[in-house]
Prior knowledge:
This protein is α+β, with helices and mostly antiparallel strands. It is 44% helix and 8% strand.
Amino acid sequence: MSNDNCKPKTPRKPKIYTVKTLDTRTHGFNVGIAMDYSPDMAIWLGHLSFWAEKNLAHSKHIHDGLVWSYDTLDSLCEYFPYYSRRQLETIINNSVKEGLVIQGNYNHTSYDRTNWYALTPKAYFYFRHLLSNKNKKKLSASISQICEMEKTDLWNGFFRSVMTIPYPDPNPIPESVGDSKNPNTHTDNSPKKLKKELVESSTLHDEEIKKLFDEKFGAYDLTIEQLFKACQEHYEQKSLWATKDKFLKWIQSEHLDNYRKKGSVVKTPPKDETDDQRQERQFFTNELTKERKNPDYVSKDLEKFPEMREKYAQYV
C-alpha cells in the first residue's frame, strides 16, 4: 500500500491581482478640516494651500490682500480623477458657502473661463505656516498699492483692513471655527465688487484729481465727494466703474454755471408755493439764466412782462 504523504504536492498557483488604475500620486489632507467639515473639503483646501505657498514664495498672483491660484474645472477633474465633475462643483461651492474659499476673476480677456480661487482668513486658521511675517508683508502690500491704507490690523493673526472697505471676512474667527452648523457670518462681497470699491476709493483720493478739482471748483460751493458721487451714479447706470480717467474727464467737462460760488446767497422758494407758481418761477428763472450766460440773448417774455425780471432775479 502506497503512502500518500510521500507524494509530491502540487504547488499552489499564485494569485493574480488585477490592477485597475496605476497612479503613483499621493494626495493628503488636513485632519482638522476633515473633522470639522469633511475629507473632501480637506483635500480641496490642501490643494489650494499648496499653490498659495508656492505663489507666495514667488510673489505671484497676489491681489487685494489675498494670494490666488487659477484652474479650469477640466484641469481639476484631471487632477482629482476620483471625483466626478458634479462632485467637484459641489465641493467648491460648499467651500465658498462655508467662507473658506473666495472666487475671483483676474483673467485678461472676457472669454477666458478660468476660475480663480483664494483661501480666506478663516481658512488660514488651518494653514498657519502661510502666515509668516514675510508673507504678511506681501499680502498687505497688495492692498496698500491700491487704497493708500495707513496700516493693517492683525486680528488673531489674520489681515483685517482698518479702512471701511468691505473685506471677505472682516469678523474675528469664533472659538468653534469648524462648526459647520453655526458657520461664521460673512459679508456678501464678491471680489469684483471689492476691487471696484478699492479702485473708486483710489480715484477719489488721487492727488492729480484733487489738484484739478481745487483749481476749477475751489471758489464754488461744491465738494469733491459730491461731484464724484454724481460721476459714480452716472457710470453705474452703464455698469461701468468710475475710474481715474473717467473722473478726470468728468471734472474737465463739468460746467461751472451749474454751481454757485461760495458766499453767494440764493433765495429759496416759499414752502407754500403752488404748482402754477412753481412753473412760473422756473420758466422766468430759466429765461434770466439764459440772458446772463449769453449777452446776445434777449428774452421776449421778460420784455413783455418786465415785472417778472425783478421778481425772480433773486432766485438766479
